[in-house]
Amino acid sequence: MSAVEINFDGIIGPSHNYAGLSIGNLASSANAQNISHPREAALQGIEKMRHNLQLGLAQGFFVPLARPDHGWLADLGTTAQDAPDSIRPAAYSASSMWAANAATVSPAPDTKDGRCHLTVANLRTMPHRSHEWADTHTQLRRAFANGKYFRVHGPVPPAFGDEGAANHMRLASSHGDKGVEIFVYGKTSGPYPARQHIEASRAVARLHRLDPEHTLFAAQSEQAIAAGAFHNDVVAVANENVLLAHEEAFEDRAELYTAIRRLLPDVEIIEVASSEVSLDDAVKSYLFNAQLVTLPQGGMGLILPEEARETPSVWKWLEKLTAGNGPIRETFVVDVRQSMANGGGPACLRLRVVADPATVDPRFMANEARLDSIAAVIKKCWAKQIAPEDLRKTRLCHDIEKAREALLEALDLEELD
To answer: How far, CA to CA in Å, does 346 sit from each of 107, 118, 242, 269, 385?
Structure first.
């Protein structure tokens, strides 16, 4: 098996709107009640995937979940037409677009049975995301149905919050080698909830049958959570043998770095000092919510949002980084402003899976022709804009459902309807 890293991006759904539902996500709160642009948002996501393909990277995708979620509304004793404003936006949320929260992934080299394990995240901390897991689980089981190579687990019980790969990192000499898996959990801190519970992380590690000697658990710093780093991937990112992290990312970074170096002697830890990039600038720019990828021609690159280039301290630091002789040699800037305005950068939009692309259901793998087909549906069916009051309109509900149906038909994935 030829294992490579595949980035599965969430296609931004036709119900993309700014309801400010994510407590602790500063961008989401700041843009609450603004007018969203679903068509523009989804096309930005397609262009990011196209950019990755042009870099020579393996690229997959997940389709939007059905919205509004009629089953969830029925469980609450209401309907899309009758739901109160306190509930309706959560039923319409397009937050499954941030595929980094879909699941936690452990590649085959790390697991006892030699299969790639995926555990769907329960996302129980936020009401608008807590009802995603069942449909996400169905989609994961379709995409990774080959039981010889994959094992897809249901969610950790909701007593313990689990937010998926956004709080998980993997380091290894190369993608195909046995790695060190790092689960980052949070504690209650200031005004914002900590979303990843340590018991959820421990449960995932057991379910994935990881080697306890190569599995680490690290607390996210309270300062980072209070600054708006609601997930670890807002302040740290890892790829192969490189860890890029903010100085204030972890509660006890010295202990963590010592453990990593013991288990992976060839690791390169690149730490961004607070004196060069403040936590506020890191969160505002999403410097660490970049995709850190291994380039086919050698070396690594950072796929960054436009906001990183527009933040002086961040861009100055990046210019110094790529001018040196380190492993990160290039930066690539992509426009994902519609996602960023709701608090999700390039890394939020993707789930990393190390596997042979030939073992994945090909309907979930991207190529130029398939992206063209997706873009054509988006241009025809996605609304140009959604205002907060539009969520009360029956016509919008109908249009959103028909748009998703058209996409599933184009991708031969009608069974997900």
So the answer is: 21, 21, 18, 21, 22
CB-based contacts of 77-84 (< 8 A; 24+ apart in sequence): 80/394, 80/397, 81/394, 81/397
User: Could you read off the pLDDT of 1-47 as tens digits, one per residue?
Assistant: 588 999 999 999 999 999 878 777 766 778 778 899 999 999 999 99
Q: Which residues contact 387 (CB under 8 A, 6 or more apart)?
A: 35
Verify whether residue 231 is a known catalytic residue.
yes
Identify the active-site residue in 181, 240, 348, 397: 348
**CATH code: domain of residue 183:** 3.75.10.20
Q: Which domain holds residue 101?
A: 4-416
* Model confidence, pTM: 0.95
**How many domains does the chain divide into?**
1
Catalytic one of 137, 197, 208, 231 = 231
Reading the block at residue 218, the tokens are: 């690290």
37 is catalytic: no
User: What letter would DSSP give residue 270?
Assistant: E
Which residue out of 163, 181, 240, 248 is catalytically annotated? 163
Which tens digits make up the pLDDT trace of 248-303?
Answer: 999 999 999 999 999 999 999 999 999 999 999 999 999 999 999 999 999 999 99
